[in-house]
Amino acid sequence: xxxxxxxxxxxxxxxxxxITGAEAIIHCLLAEGVDLIYGYPGGAIMPVYDELYKFxxxxxxxxxxxxxxxxxxAQGYARVSGKVGVAMATSGPGATNLVTGLADxxxxxxxxxxxxxxVPRHLLGSDAFQETDIVGISTPVTxxxxxxxxxxxxxxxxxxxxxxxxxxxxxxxLIDITKNAQFDELAFTYEKCTGxxxxxxxxxxxxSAIKAAAELINQAKRPYIVWGQGIILxxxxxELKALIEKTGIPAAWTIxxxxxxxxxHPLNVGMVGMHGNYGPNVLTNECDLLLAIGMRFDxxxxxxxxxxxxxxxxxxxxxxxAEIDKNVKADVAVLxxxxxxxxxxxxxxxxxxHEAWHNEFKAKDKIEFDTVIKNDxxxxxxxLTMGEVIEEINIASKNKAVIVTDVGQHQMIACRYAxxxxxxxxxxxxxxxxxxFALPAAIGAKMGAMDxxxxxxxxxxxxxxxxxxxxxxxxxxxxxxxxxxxxxxxxMVRQWQELFFERRYASTVMVNxxxxxxxxxxxxxxxxxxxxxxxxxxxxxxxxxxKPYFLEVKVEKEDNVFPMIPSGASxxxxxxx
Amino acid sequence: MEKKWFTISVYAENNVGLLNRxxxxxxxxxxxxxxxxxxxxxxxxxxxxxxxxxTTEDWTRKxxxxxxxxxxVIKAFYHTDDETIYQESALFKIxxxxxxxxxxIQNIIKESNSQIVTVSRDFFVLAKxxxxxxxxxxxxxxxxxxxxxxxxxGRIAVTKEAMPITExxxxxxx
Lengths: 577, 174
Ligand SMILES: Cc1ncc(C[n+]2csc(CCOP(=O)(O)OP(=O)(O)O)c2C)c(N)n1
Known about the structure:
The complex is a heterodimer. Chain A is α/β, with parallel strands linked by helices. Chain A is built from 24 helices and 20 strands. In chain A, about 40% of the residues lie in helices and about 15% in strands. Chain A has a six-stranded parallel β-sheet with strand order 3-2-4-5-7-6, sandwiched between helices. In chain A, strands 11-10-9-12-13-14 form a six-stranded parallel β-sheet. In chain A, strand 6, helix 8 and strand 7 form a beta-alpha-beta unit. The N terminus of chain A is likely disordered. By secondary structure, chain B is an alpha+beta fold. Chain B contains six helices and nine strands, in the order βαββαββααββαββα. The radius of gyration of chain B is 19 Å and the shape is elongated. The chains are: A alpha/beta, B alpha+beta. At the A-B interface, strand 6 of A face helix 1, helix 2 and helix 6 of B. The structure holds thiamine diphosphate.
C-alpha cells in the first residue's frame, strides 16, 4: 500500500506542470467542463484575461456591459442548463457590481461561481487602488466564499467552489484571487472535489418519515401539493408527475417551480402566492393535508402565517434542514433530495382520484376565469393588456419557449399566463425580485439552450436597468426575443400606490425614450405595436425570426394585476378585483 | 415564547471568514450575542465557538439551523444552562494601596475564592473564575473601593451529554 501511494505520488509529481496561477484558473475551469463565462476585465484580473485570450478556442468569454449583467447571464445559463454559471470581474467596483447577482442567486438557489481579482497580497488591508473587502461584503449573499492569496491554493479551492455551488441546495460561491497568486507559478494537478468533511450536501432520507408521509397521504380526503424549485433543481419532475398521477392529488406551484409539470396537465392546478390563482390560494386553507415539496414558504407565497393552512397537516419535503419549521411548522419533515424521497414514497401511496376535491378547484377556476382571466386574455376594452401579449407568445411559440421575466406586473402576468410543456422554462427572479434581471438572464438562457426559443418579457422600468446588455446581443448575435411591455409606469409600484396610497404616484411615472430606436442603434431588428389588430402578426414575425428581435408593446397604462393577496393578508382573503 | 439563556456550541473548520459568517446570522435577526468565545476543541484543526444568547428557544433553534448550514461548520448545538457546565473568567486591577488601607479588601479576596495573579507597587490583579453571578457579586463588592480595570471573558462551556464530533467527521469522510 505504502509503495503504491508513493508511486502514485511520484507519478502525479511528474505530470504536474509548472504554470502560473492565472493559467491554472483556466485549466480548472476547463476541467469543470466550463466552456462559457461572462465577465468584465480590469487591473486586478488582467493575468487571467491574458490567459483567456490564449485559450479562446476552448473557453468563450462574453464581455457583458456591466458586471451585474455577467451574474444574471450566468444565472440564466445555469437555470436552463442545470450547470454552474460562471462570472468574472476585477477587484473593487467590478467585484461590488456582482453583489446583486450573488444575492439573487443565493435566495433562488442558483449554482454560480464568481471569480474576482484582488490587489496583491502585500497590499491587502492598505486601502490600495480598487481594493474592497469583497469576501466580507459577499459573505451574507454567498453559499461559500474564499480569498486565495497563494497560487498553490488555486486547484483545490476552485474544485471546492464548483462542488459547493452545485451540490445539495445549490448557491453562489465567490472566489477572490489576489494578483500575486495569478502571477506566481505552481505545480498544477487537478482533482475534482467529491466532498468537504464539514459539509453534508443533503441529509439521507429517513424511511420512517417517508412512511409517516405516505400514511397521511393515504388517509387524507383533501390532500394538496404545492411544489417549488426543489423539483427542478433536484430533477424530480418525473417523480412528481408519477406521484400526482397515482394519488390524484391536485398540485400547484410557486413561480420558482413553474414549468416542472406541463401547464396542460390536468392535475396541475396553477400558481400559488400573491398574484397566483384563486383556487390554489383559497383552497390552501381548505385542504386537510398540505404536501410542500421543494419549496420554502416564502411570505409572497403564504401571506399571513397566522392564518396559513392552519387546518391542515403539513408534510414538508425539503433538502435544507434549516427550512424545516422556519416559517410553517411541519407535522412530518421528509429531509433529502426530492428525487430520492419521492421515489421512496411512490410505492407506499394508494391510487386515488379525489374527484370531488378536484371539482372544488374547477369551481374556483371558473370564478377566476369569469372575473379576471377573461378580461386579461380576451379584453373588450381598446387598450392592450399584458395578458393578451403573453397569450400570443404562447400561440406563436407553441408553448415551447423559455420565458425569462423581469420583475413587476409583467412578471406576474407572464407567470400566470405563459404555458409550458418543458421543464426549466420559466426563468425569473423570484426571491430577490431583481429588476434588470431579465435581459442579461435571457442572454445566458439562450446560450445555455441554443436549440430553444428564448423570449424575455420585461417592463419599461426594469429594461432600463440593464439595457446596455443589448450590446452583447448585437455583438454576439444572440438570437433572443425581447418583449418590452411598456405601460410608461413602474407598474407594480403604481398599482400599490393606487390601492394602498390613494393614487399618489410618487416617482412611478416614466418618461421613456424611443425603445425601437435604441434597439436599432444596436442594429437589432425592432418593432412597436400599439393596437390590437397588429399584435398577432407582430408576435408571429418576432418568433419566426432567427435573429435577435425587439418588440415593444404599448399596453394599458394603469392596469392592475389580480387576483391579489394584499401583503400581510391571508391566502383566503385574496382579492379578485 | 419566553426568553432564556442558551449556549450555542459550534464545531467548525478553522477559517478566517467564518466568524463573520456566523455573526451575520445573528445580526440579520437582531439577536445580540451576549458572549462569544473561540478556541480550539478536543479535535485537531477543529475550532469551537461558544456563543451565549438570551432569546426564545424557537429563535435559537432557527439560528443553530442557519449556522449548521454554513459549509465550514461541522455541527452546531444549543443547550440550556442546566445542560452544560459553564464558567467565565474575570480580571480586576486594583490600586495596591487599598490592600493595606482597606481591611475589607482582604476579606473579599478570601470570600470570593479569587486568586492574586500579580502584585506590584502600584496595583495588583485578581483573577476570578466562576458563574456570571459570582463574578458580578465580586464586582459589586469591589466597586465601592475603586476598580482600575475590569474585564470578563466570554462563557466557556462543556455539555453534560456527549458530543459525537469525531464520529460526524469520520462519517463525512466516508
Ligand atoms: C432593483 C429593484 N429596484 C426596485 C424594485 C421595486 N419594484 C418592484 S416592481 C417595480 C416596478 C417595475 O416596473 P416595470 O419594470 O416598468 O414593470 P411593470 O411593473 O410596469 O410591469 C419596482 C420599482 C425592484 N424590484 N428591484
